[in-house]
Design goal:
This protein has about 160 residues and is of the alpha+beta class. It is built from 5 helices and 5 strands, in the order αβαββαββαα. The protein has a domain at about 115-158.
């Protein structure tokens, strides 16, 4: 049963997950996930076909008109079609994603890049502070560790 532990796994493709957990393990992980997000950029036919089936079909009404000696008749038929087929999913543009969540119909969303979001400045500051390429000396790191330790001990940071 569920223990309330939230995990997030981000993969670039289905195959990447198969490399890590094997085919059976990847199917189990995918099946048990409460939220799945597909952001495009994949060209694996089998995965995209499976995803297309999960997204589902819709009924499109088509009308045809015929006329003859007896007059004119209109015939209407329903055609079942995929909402997003393999080609649509493979060509999904940047800025769009499909979200599949338990108990809900799949949803096409517009993504928001972090640099345009409400926390952009905080993210930029975090990158500057933690990027391995940032110019930070050992002394600065040690000072920071001492400040954190002092704050945790209740002595306050200098």
């Amino acid at each position: 049963g569920s223990r309330g532990i939230v995990l997030m796994t981000i993969l670039q493709s289905w195959s990447q997950g198969v490399d890590v957990w094997g085919d059976s393990g990847m199917r189990k992980l995918w099946s048990a996930s409460n939220v799945k997000v597909y952001g495009g950029g994949v060209s694996e036919d089998a995965f995209l076909e499976s995803l297309s089936k999960l997204i589902g079909d819709y009924d499109r009404q088509a009308s045809s008109v015929s006329s003859g000696r007896g007059g004119r008749s209109v015939n209407q038929q329903l055609h079942r079609e995929r909402i997003l087929d393999v080609a649509d999913l493979a060509a999904m543009p940047k800025g769009r994603a499909v979200v599949l969540s338990s108990g809900n119909r799949p949803t096409l969303i517009r993504t928001q890049p972090w640099m345009t979001g409400p926390h952009a400045e905080k993210v930029k500051a975090s990158i500057a502070a933690h990027d391995p390429q940032a110019s930070r000396t050992i002394i600065e790191a040690q000072e920071s560790v001492r400040e954190v330790a002092a704050a945790v001990d209740g002595r306050g940071a200098a």
